[in-house]
Design brief:
The chain is an alpha+beta fold. The chain has six helices and 22 strands. The strands form four sheets. Strands 1, 2, 5, 6, 7, 8, 9, 10, 11 and 12 form a ten-stranded mixed sheet that branches. Helix 4 packs across helix 5. The longest helix has 15 residues. The structure holds zinc ion (2 copies). One zinc ion (ZN) binds next to loops. The site of one zinc ion (ZN) has 8 residues, from loops.
Length: about 400
Amino acid sequence: MNGSNFQIEQQCPQCGAPIILDEADRILSCKFCRTRVYLATEDHFRFYIPPAEGISETVYFIPYWRLKGLSYAIKAHDISYTYFDANFISFDSSLLPYSLGLRPQAMKLKFVGNSDNKGKFIASFHMKEENLLKNFKTQPGADQEVFIGETASVIYTPVYCAQGRIYDAILKKPLDLQNKDAEIEQALISSPEEKWRVDFFPLLCPDCGADLPGEKDALILFCDNCHSAWNPSNKNFTKVKFLTWQEKGDNIIYLPFWQLKVKVSGIQLESYADLIKVANLPKAPVEVWTQTPFYFCAPAFKVNPALFLRWCRQLTSTPAPNDLTADFPAQKIHPATLPENEALKSSLLTLASLIADKRNLAELLSSLHLTLEDSSLVLHPFKISASELVHTKIGFGMEISALNMGAYL
Ligand SMILES: [Zn+2]
Ligand SMILES: [Zn+2]
Protein backbone atom coordinates (compact mmCIF):
# COMPACT_ATOMS: atom_id res chain seq x y z
CA MET A 1 0.00 0.00 0.00
CA ASN A 2 2.64 2.46 1.05
CA GLY A 3 5.20 3.12 -1.66
CA SER A 4 8.05 3.41 0.78
CA ASN A 5 7.63 -0.03 2.32
CA PHE A 6 10.19 -2.63 1.38
CA GLN A 7 9.29 -5.92 -0.16
CA ILE A 8 10.72 -9.09 1.31
CA GLU A 9 11.42 -12.26 -0.62
CA GLN A 10 10.97 -15.38 1.47
CA GLN A 11 10.48 -19.05 0.67
CA CYS A 12 7.52 -20.91 2.09
CA PRO A 13 8.94 -22.84 5.09
CA GLN A 14 6.77 -25.82 4.14
CA CYS A 15 7.03 -26.23 0.35
CA GLY A 16 9.75 -23.77 -0.63
CA ALA A 17 7.61 -21.71 -2.99
CA PRO A 18 8.82 -18.11 -3.39
CA ILE A 19 6.66 -15.58 -1.55
CA ILE A 20 6.80 -11.78 -1.61
CA LEU A 21 5.93 -10.10 1.66
CA ASP A 22 5.45 -6.48 2.56
CA GLU A 23 7.67 -5.13 5.30
CA ALA A 24 4.64 -4.74 7.59
CA ASP A 25 3.36 -8.29 7.05
CA ARG A 26 3.37 -10.58 10.05
CA ILE A 27 1.61 -13.55 8.48
CA LEU A 28 3.10 -15.54 5.64
CA SER A 29 0.52 -17.49 3.70
CA CYS A 30 1.45 -19.79 0.88
CA LYS A 31 -1.06 -20.12 -1.90
CA PHE A 32 0.53 -23.36 -3.10
CA CYS A 33 0.47 -25.50 0.06
CA ARG A 34 -1.87 -23.29 2.12
CA THR A 35 0.59 -23.04 4.99
CA ARG A 36 0.01 -20.02 7.22
CA VAL A 37 2.64 -19.06 9.75
CA TYR A 38 3.35 -16.08 11.95
CA LEU A 39 6.69 -14.30 11.56
CA ALA A 40 8.09 -13.69 15.02
CA THR A 41 11.12 -12.11 16.61
CA GLU A 42 12.12 -11.22 20.16
CA ASP A 43 13.01 -7.66 19.23
CA HIS A 44 13.08 -6.39 15.64
CA PHE A 45 13.38 -7.90 12.20
CA ARG A 46 16.68 -8.01 10.37
CA PHE A 47 16.80 -7.96 6.57
CA TYR A 48 19.55 -7.84 4.01
CA ILE A 49 19.97 -6.51 0.53
CA PRO A 50 21.23 -9.38 -1.64
CA PRO A 51 24.66 -8.83 -3.21
CA ALA A 52 25.18 -8.90 -6.99
CA GLU A 53 25.87 -12.24 -8.68
CA GLY A 54 29.37 -13.56 -9.27
CA ILE A 55 31.27 -12.35 -6.20
CA SER A 56 33.74 -15.00 -5.06
CA GLU A 57 35.23 -13.01 -2.17
CA THR A 58 33.80 -13.14 1.35
CA VAL A 59 30.80 -10.84 1.59
CA TYR A 60 30.41 -8.78 4.76
CA PHE A 61 26.99 -7.44 5.64
CA ILE A 62 26.99 -4.09 7.42
CA PRO A 63 24.02 -3.21 9.67
CA TYR A 64 21.94 -0.05 9.41
CA TRP A 65 19.08 0.91 11.69
CA ARG A 66 15.89 1.81 9.95
CA LEU A 67 13.23 3.86 11.73
CA LYS A 68 9.99 4.91 10.22
CA GLY A 69 6.83 6.44 11.59
CA LEU A 70 5.14 9.57 12.61
CA SER A 71 6.34 12.40 14.77
CA TYR A 72 3.85 14.55 16.64
CA ALA A 73 5.26 17.82 17.96
CA ILE A 74 3.53 19.44 20.90
CA LYS A 75 3.84 23.21 20.63
CA ALA A 76 2.35 26.03 22.64
CA HIS A 77 -0.89 26.24 20.70
CA ASP A 78 -1.13 23.18 18.53
CA ILE A 79 0.08 19.71 17.74
CA SER A 80 1.67 19.25 14.36
CA TYR A 81 2.89 16.07 12.76
CA THR A 82 5.32 14.89 10.15
CA TYR A 83 6.35 11.55 8.72
CA PHE A 84 9.88 10.35 9.09
CA ASP A 85 11.80 7.53 7.47
CA ALA A 86 15.42 7.45 8.54
CA ASN A 87 18.31 5.04 8.47
CA PHE A 88 21.81 5.19 9.84
CA ILE A 89 24.78 2.90 10.27
CA SER A 90 25.04 0.63 13.30
CA PHE A 91 28.77 -0.07 13.01
CA ASP A 92 31.60 1.93 14.49
CA SER A 93 33.07 3.58 11.41
CA SER A 94 32.97 7.17 10.29
CA LEU A 95 34.24 6.27 6.81
CA LEU A 96 31.56 3.84 5.71
CA PRO A 97 28.44 5.52 4.30
CA TYR A 98 26.31 6.93 7.11
CA SER A 99 23.02 5.92 5.50
CA LEU A 100 21.75 3.35 3.03
CA GLY A 101 20.68 5.91 0.46
CA LEU A 102 17.58 5.31 -1.58
CA ARG A 103 18.51 2.15 -3.41
CA PRO A 104 16.91 -0.46 -1.13
CA GLN A 105 13.46 0.93 -1.85
CA ALA A 106 13.66 -0.60 -5.30
CA MET A 107 15.19 -3.91 -4.23
CA LYS A 108 13.68 -6.99 -2.67
CA LEU A 109 15.16 -7.75 0.72
CA LYS A 110 15.57 -11.09 2.46
CA PHE A 111 15.48 -12.16 6.07
CA VAL A 112 18.84 -12.56 7.76
CA GLY A 113 19.37 -16.23 8.59
CA ASN A 114 18.01 -17.25 5.21
CA SER A 115 19.90 -20.38 4.11
CA ASP A 116 20.96 -19.12 0.69
CA ASN A 117 23.30 -16.38 1.86
CA LYS A 118 26.97 -16.90 2.44
CA GLY A 119 28.96 -14.27 4.19
CA LYS A 120 29.34 -12.62 7.52
CA PHE A 121 26.63 -10.54 9.12
CA ILE A 122 28.12 -8.01 11.52
CA ALA A 123 26.21 -7.85 14.82
CA SER A 124 24.48 -4.49 15.22
CA PHE A 125 24.52 -2.43 18.39
CA HIS A 126 21.60 -3.51 20.49
CA MET A 127 19.58 -0.50 21.41
CA LYS A 128 16.10 0.06 22.63
CA GLU A 129 13.83 2.04 20.38
CA GLU A 130 13.53 4.91 22.83
CA ASN A 131 17.33 5.25 22.94
CA LEU A 132 17.56 5.23 19.18
CA LEU A 133 15.06 8.03 19.09
CA LYS A 134 16.50 10.02 21.97
CA ASN A 135 18.59 12.37 19.87
CA PHE A 136 16.33 12.20 16.90
CA LYS A 137 14.46 15.42 16.14
CA THR A 138 12.29 16.14 13.16
CA GLN A 139 10.52 19.29 14.33
CA PRO A 140 12.65 22.03 15.85
CA GLY A 141 10.93 24.27 18.39
CA ALA A 142 8.63 21.58 19.72
CA ASP A 143 8.05 21.46 23.48
CA GLN A 144 7.97 17.73 23.16
CA GLU A 145 8.09 15.27 20.31
CA VAL A 146 6.23 11.97 20.38
CA PHE A 147 7.04 9.20 17.90
CA ILE A 148 4.29 6.76 17.04
CA GLY A 149 4.04 3.76 14.81
CA GLU A 150 7.72 3.29 14.16
CA THR A 151 9.13 0.49 12.17
CA ALA A 152 12.42 -0.33 13.79
CA SER A 153 14.43 -2.88 11.89
CA VAL A 154 17.99 -3.56 10.88
CA ILE A 155 18.87 -3.63 7.21
CA TYR A 156 22.16 -5.10 6.07
CA THR A 157 24.01 -3.95 2.99
CA PRO A 158 26.81 -6.10 1.51
CA VAL A 159 30.45 -5.24 0.80
CA TYR A 160 33.50 -7.31 -0.12
CA CYS A 161 37.27 -6.81 -0.19
CA ALA A 162 39.35 -7.20 -3.37
CA GLN A 163 42.80 -5.89 -4.36
CA GLY A 164 43.08 -3.95 -1.11
CA ARG A 165 39.83 -2.06 -1.67
CA ILE A 166 36.36 -2.41 -0.18
CA TYR A 167 33.61 -2.71 -2.76
CA ASP A 168 29.91 -2.09 -2.58
CA ALA A 169 28.65 -5.61 -3.39
CA ILE A 170 25.44 -4.40 -5.00
CA LEU A 171 27.04 -2.04 -7.53
CA LYS A 172 30.45 -3.81 -7.54
CA LYS A 173 32.12 -0.42 -7.21
CA PRO A 174 34.84 0.52 -4.73
CA LEU A 175 33.79 2.72 -1.81
CA ASP A 176 35.66 5.94 -1.10
CA LEU A 177 37.24 5.11 2.25
CA GLN A 178 40.17 7.56 2.06
CA ASN A 179 42.75 4.77 1.82
CA LYS A 180 41.59 3.27 5.11
CA ASP A 181 40.28 0.14 3.36
CA ALA A 182 42.67 -2.25 5.12
CA GLU A 183 41.75 -0.85 8.53
CA ILE A 184 38.05 -1.27 7.85
CA GLU A 185 38.58 -4.78 6.50
CA GLN A 186 40.28 -5.69 9.79
CA ALA A 187 37.37 -4.24 11.75
CA LEU A 188 34.92 -6.31 9.68
CA ILE A 189 36.98 -9.48 10.21
CA SER A 190 37.22 -9.01 13.97
CA SER A 191 33.62 -7.88 14.61
CA PRO A 192 31.17 -10.27 16.28
CA GLU A 193 28.73 -12.06 14.02
CA GLU A 194 24.93 -11.74 14.05
CA LYS A 195 23.12 -15.03 14.72
CA TRP A 196 19.53 -13.89 14.37
CA ARG A 197 16.92 -15.67 12.31
CA VAL A 198 13.21 -15.22 11.83
CA ASP A 199 10.93 -17.72 13.57
CA PHE A 200 7.83 -19.24 12.04
CA PHE A 201 4.92 -20.09 14.34
CA PRO A 202 1.90 -22.12 13.33
CA LEU A 203 -1.30 -20.08 13.59
CA LEU A 204 -3.16 -22.23 16.08
CA CYS A 205 -5.04 -21.06 19.14
CA PRO A 206 -2.99 -22.03 22.24
CA ASP A 207 -6.20 -22.64 24.21
CA CYS A 208 -8.30 -24.74 21.86
CA GLY A 209 -6.08 -25.59 18.89
CA ALA A 210 -8.35 -24.03 16.27
CA ASP A 211 -6.88 -22.20 13.29
CA LEU A 212 -6.42 -18.49 13.98
CA PRO A 213 -7.67 -16.38 11.11
CA GLY A 214 -6.17 -12.94 10.51
CA GLU A 215 -5.13 -10.36 7.98
CA LYS A 216 -1.47 -10.50 6.97
CA ASP A 217 -0.49 -7.42 8.96
CA ALA A 218 -2.61 -8.19 12.05
CA LEU A 219 -0.83 -7.88 15.37
CA ILE A 220 -3.65 -9.40 17.42
CA LEU A 221 -5.36 -12.63 16.39
CA PHE A 222 -8.85 -13.65 17.46
CA CYS A 223 -9.95 -17.24 17.91
CA ASP A 224 -13.37 -17.72 16.42
CA ASN A 225 -13.82 -20.97 18.25
CA CYS A 226 -13.16 -20.14 21.91
CA HIS A 227 -13.44 -16.33 21.65
CA SER A 228 -9.95 -15.50 22.83
CA ALA A 229 -7.43 -12.97 21.49
CA TRP A 230 -3.68 -13.43 21.13
CA ASN A 231 -0.56 -11.40 20.62
CA PRO A 232 1.92 -13.66 18.82
CA SER A 233 4.68 -11.15 18.24
CA ASN A 234 6.98 -12.10 21.06
CA LYS A 235 7.85 -15.69 20.12
CA ASN A 236 5.08 -16.97 22.35
CA PHE A 237 1.40 -16.26 22.14
CA THR A 238 0.27 -14.05 24.98
CA LYS A 239 -3.39 -13.65 25.75
CA VAL A 240 -4.88 -10.23 25.12
CA LYS A 241 -7.77 -8.96 27.21
CA PHE A 242 -10.51 -7.84 24.89
CA LEU A 243 -13.97 -6.42 25.39
CA THR A 244 -16.78 -5.63 23.01
CA TRP A 245 -19.27 -2.81 22.93
CA GLN A 246 -21.93 -4.88 21.23
CA GLU A 247 -24.44 -3.62 18.74
CA LYS A 248 -27.41 -5.34 17.16
CA GLY A 249 -28.31 -5.20 13.52
CA ASP A 250 -26.66 -5.62 10.15
CA ASN A 251 -23.84 -3.75 8.51
CA ILE A 252 -21.87 -3.46 11.72
CA ILE A 253 -18.10 -3.68 11.71
CA TYR A 254 -16.01 -3.60 14.89
CA LEU A 255 -12.94 -1.40 15.06
CA PRO A 256 -10.33 -2.13 17.73
CA PHE A 257 -9.22 0.58 20.16
CA TRP A 258 -6.76 0.31 23.02
CA GLN A 259 -8.20 1.20 26.38
CA LEU A 260 -5.30 2.05 28.65
CA LYS A 261 -5.23 2.45 32.40
CA VAL A 262 -2.28 4.80 32.80
CA LYS A 263 -0.75 6.06 36.00
CA VAL A 264 0.12 9.71 35.48
CA SER A 265 2.52 10.95 38.12
CA GLY A 266 2.06 14.55 39.16
CA ILE A 267 -1.67 14.89 38.52
CA GLN A 268 -4.79 13.23 39.86
CA LEU A 269 -6.29 11.32 36.95
CA GLU A 270 -8.07 8.28 38.30
CA SER A 271 -11.70 8.92 37.48
CA TYR A 272 -13.61 10.54 34.67
CA ALA A 273 -14.47 13.36 37.08
CA ASP A 274 -10.72 13.98 37.45
CA LEU A 275 -10.40 14.35 33.69
CA ILE A 276 -13.18 16.94 33.59
CA LYS A 277 -11.25 18.94 36.16
CA VAL A 278 -7.77 18.51 34.67
CA ALA A 279 -8.84 19.24 31.10
CA ASN A 280 -11.54 21.71 32.10
CA LEU A 281 -14.06 19.92 29.89
CA PRO A 282 -17.31 21.81 29.41
CA LYS A 283 -19.39 19.25 31.31
CA ALA A 284 -21.45 19.59 34.46
CA PRO A 285 -20.08 17.18 37.06
CA VAL A 286 -22.22 14.13 37.75
CA GLU A 287 -21.77 12.09 40.91
CA VAL A 288 -21.38 8.78 39.04
CA TRP A 289 -18.30 10.11 37.23
CA THR A 290 -16.31 10.18 40.44
CA GLN A 291 -16.74 6.39 40.37
CA THR A 292 -16.13 6.00 36.61
CA PRO A 293 -12.53 4.93 35.96
CA PHE A 294 -10.60 7.07 33.53
CA TYR A 295 -8.90 5.47 30.53
CA PHE A 296 -6.84 6.77 27.67
CA CYS A 297 -8.15 5.46 24.35
CA ALA A 298 -6.36 5.20 21.03
CA PRO A 299 -7.05 3.48 17.73
CA ALA A 300 -5.40 0.06 17.50
CA PHE A 301 -5.38 0.40 13.72
CA LYS A 302 -3.48 2.60 11.35
CA VAL A 303 -5.28 5.69 10.23
CA ASN A 304 -4.06 9.07 9.03
CA PRO A 305 -2.39 11.20 11.73
CA ALA A 306 -5.03 13.91 12.11
CA LEU A 307 -7.78 11.35 12.43
CA PHE A 308 -5.73 9.25 14.82
CA LEU A 309 -5.50 12.18 17.21
CA ARG A 310 -9.17 13.05 16.78
CA TRP A 311 -10.18 9.53 17.78
CA CYS A 312 -7.84 9.62 20.77
CA ARG A 313 -9.48 12.86 21.91
CA GLN A 314 -13.01 11.81 21.16
CA LEU A 315 -12.96 8.48 22.96
CA THR A 316 -10.74 9.57 25.84
CA SER A 317 -13.11 12.47 26.60
CA THR A 318 -16.15 10.17 26.53
CA PRO A 319 -16.89 8.34 29.79
CA ALA A 320 -15.89 4.67 29.58
CA PRO A 321 -18.88 2.47 28.72
CA ASN A 322 -20.15 0.15 31.46
CA ASP A 323 -21.83 -2.36 29.17
CA LEU A 324 -18.82 -4.07 27.60
CA THR A 325 -18.89 -7.82 27.19
CA ALA A 326 -15.95 -10.19 27.34
CA ASP A 327 -17.25 -12.99 25.16
CA PHE A 328 -17.60 -12.26 21.51
CA PRO A 329 -17.40 -14.20 18.25
CA ALA A 330 -14.48 -12.92 16.21
CA GLN A 331 -16.39 -11.72 13.22
CA LYS A 332 -16.25 -8.50 11.26
CA ILE A 333 -13.32 -7.11 13.20
CA HIS A 334 -11.00 -4.68 11.51
CA PRO A 335 -7.43 -5.91 12.13
CA ALA A 336 -5.43 -4.44 14.99
CA THR A 337 -2.20 -3.17 13.44
CA LEU A 338 -0.94 -0.70 16.04
CA PRO A 339 0.67 -2.28 19.09
CA GLU A 340 -0.20 -1.34 22.65
CA ASN A 341 3.18 0.29 23.39
CA GLU A 342 2.74 2.67 20.44
CA ALA A 343 -0.77 3.48 21.57
CA LEU A 344 0.54 4.25 25.04
CA LYS A 345 2.75 6.99 23.60
CA SER A 346 -0.35 8.73 22.31
CA SER A 347 -1.58 9.33 25.89
CA LEU A 348 0.65 12.36 26.31
CA LEU A 349 -0.62 13.81 23.03
CA THR A 350 -4.21 13.21 24.00
CA LEU A 351 -3.68 14.89 27.33
CA ALA A 352 -1.92 17.87 25.73
CA SER A 353 -4.70 18.22 23.25
CA LEU A 354 -7.49 17.96 25.87
CA ILE A 355 -6.07 20.39 28.41
CA ALA A 356 -7.80 23.69 27.67
CA ASP A 357 -5.44 25.94 29.56
CA LYS A 358 -2.24 25.82 27.49
CA ARG A 359 -0.31 28.46 29.48
CA ASN A 360 1.87 26.11 31.51
CA LEU A 361 1.45 23.09 29.27
CA ALA A 362 5.11 22.67 28.33
CA GLU A 363 6.19 22.65 31.98
CA LEU A 364 3.38 20.37 32.99
CA LEU A 365 4.05 17.83 30.23
CA SER A 366 7.76 17.63 30.88
CA SER A 367 7.08 16.87 34.56
CA LEU A 368 4.67 14.01 33.88
CA HIS A 369 5.61 10.39 33.92
CA LEU A 370 3.21 7.87 32.37
CA THR A 371 3.16 4.21 33.36
CA LEU A 372 0.86 1.62 31.86
CA GLU A 373 -1.05 -0.26 34.56
CA ASP A 374 -3.51 -2.25 32.53
CA SER A 375 -4.87 -2.45 29.00
CA SER A 376 -7.68 -4.00 27.01
CA LEU A 377 -8.52 -4.09 23.38
CA VAL A 378 -12.06 -2.78 23.03
CA LEU A 379 -14.08 -3.47 19.90
CA HIS A 380 -16.26 -0.50 19.04
CA PRO A 381 -19.28 -0.89 16.73
CA PHE A 382 -19.51 1.11 13.52
CA LYS A 383 -22.37 1.18 11.06
CA ILE A 384 -21.28 0.95 7.46
CA SER A 385 -23.00 3.30 5.03
CA ALA A 386 -22.10 4.14 1.44
CA SER A 387 -18.83 5.93 2.15
CA GLU A 388 -18.85 6.37 5.92
CA LEU A 389 -18.33 4.47 9.13
CA VAL A 390 -20.34 5.85 12.03
CA HIS A 391 -19.78 4.87 15.65
CA THR A 392 -23.22 3.61 16.64
CA LYS A 393 -22.90 4.65 20.30
CA ILE A 394 -21.37 8.10 20.10
CA GLY A 395 -22.35 9.10 16.58
CA PHE A 396 -18.86 10.12 15.54
CA GLY A 397 -17.91 9.06 12.04
CA MET A 398 -15.18 8.90 9.44
CA GLU A 399 -14.79 8.15 5.77
CA ILE A 400 -14.30 4.45 5.00
CA SER A 401 -11.36 5.40 2.81
CA ALA A 402 -9.50 6.74 5.87
CA LEU A 403 -8.91 3.18 6.98
CA ASN A 404 -6.87 2.44 3.92
CA MET A 405 -4.71 5.50 4.30
CA GLY A 406 -2.94 4.56 7.46
CA ALA A 407 -0.07 2.71 5.89
CA TYR A 408 2.18 5.59 6.87
CA LEU A 409 1.52 5.33 10.54
ZN1 LIG B 1 4.03 -23.54 0.63
ZN1 LIG C 1 -9.37 -20.93 20.65
